[in-house]
# Entry
Amino acid sequence: MEYDGRRATDNQQEGIMQDHVVIFDTTLRDGEQAPGASMTLPEKVRIARQLALLNVDVIEAGFPISSPAQSQAVEVVAGEVEGPVICALARAVEADVRAAGEALRPGLTGKTRIHTFIATSDIHLDAKFGDARFGRTLEEKRRTILRMAQEAVAHARTYTSDVEFSAEDAGRTDLGYLCEIVQAAVEAGATTINIPDTTGYCIPREYAALFEAVKDCLKDHPSVVLSAHCHDDLGLAVANSLAAVLAGARQIECTLNGIGERAGNAALEEVVMALRVRRELFELDTQIEAQHLAESSKMISIAVGFPVPPNKAVVGRNAFSHEAGIHQHGVLRRRDTYEIMRAEDVGQKPEQIRLGRHSGRHGLFSRLEKLGLLVPQDQQDAIYRRFVELADRKKEIYDQDLYHLIDAREEVPMTPFYRLDRMSIAAGTNQPPEADVTIHHYRTGQDRREHATGDGPVDALYRAIDHAVGSAHVLESYTIRSVSEGADAVGEVTVLVGDNGAFFRGMARHTDVLQASAAAYLEALNQLEAFRADEESVVFVSNGIMQSFQGGIA
Ligand code: KIV
Ligand code: ZN
# Structure
């Protein structure tokens, strides 16, 4: 019988009908395995609720045997999050499967899955199963592993009828052995077979061939769901996952923002939108409520502390922004000239015309018009000239800058919110470092002086600046490097400041690294304020002259 991935499974997998690609989210398990990405229990529950809102089919909530915190996370998510199947990971050993089964017990709707795995590639067998009790020869080890897989699957079936088996490092596993072990797992009761490219080694053609081969050896089990699980070591995780779908996979394992071990996993938002945008090609879709993708991406970025790169596909801040004149002209006429999906369909702001040094007159004057700033024909050349001069000095031109431009001021301040007027720092052997700063607020015209102590001089300085600025933000990263040699070397400081998913960079160089630190921080804070003010701006216009605006500059 031909394998037909679109048939409904005959097992417990209520809600998982194979007329769509099952989205198995592993942000809370493989995602959390990314170095530095650990999440607290409340964060995990919040993310799991968001995943339910996104309508993922399966949430892999943790690896219960690995720690009490992991076990508790699975228990709480299974007990509190309704909708998706809740899954727990277990190695193919008795204690792991028991821990997974017990952690899943509170399962709200009874939709629970145990995902058991064991390594199958020769390299893993050799390195991980060296102990003589697994056998001496490769063949003996393979027999032992196969038996362990069967036993683990059968044991998992005593807790739930929804059992997934993964052949770890399938991407580098001997094909004949891979077929044997997946057949054995299915005969023992596995309902989903996962073929992970654990090391991100495969290219799409090879990975698809694995699925063709496995599909063929499971042709007598048409209801078994084949699953792709790809790592991004060569940047191919999404491409490989999609190639697997074309070859018969009907489940993709992925994470928000692609976080995960090493280079990460396939990014959920990318696989979902690739399937949706190219639906005519795949003839399949997912059940994801894509309008929640951007907020989900922000949420995980904040929880794990990894900023979303601005150029990140689908959810990056620049994913729907156009700076180049030709592009702006195109999208202003017809969005699909340069956009293959609608920003609002993934929860992003539509038609983001970003003004910078590559923008043309069309982009500038259409933005001004949107702001209600109608520039008379005879003034347009002068305004455009001033815009080009400013764009050469500034990375991005915000609406606030445009107001200044129109206001006919010759000097447009680069940092229109805060200016550091004075700083003094004291550090010594038996005293905590102290900093004293005076910040000028352009908005109010007032100076604010503050004092703070800290763990080190930069910490004290940044705390004092935070007090003097008085706005909420998070210092995401601080790096310093020497850009010349010797004790009087020039230090270059780069900081990243974040607020609610938006990130702003400041950079400064100085022989005095504390001055560079202060200048870089102020630059980032000014960018953040410009961004905030931009978001808040409301303009009332008559006769082409701006009358008032909220969030503007006093
Ligand atoms: O990458 C991998 O092989 C895994 C398994 C546990 C499925 O994460
Ligand atoms: Zn993995």
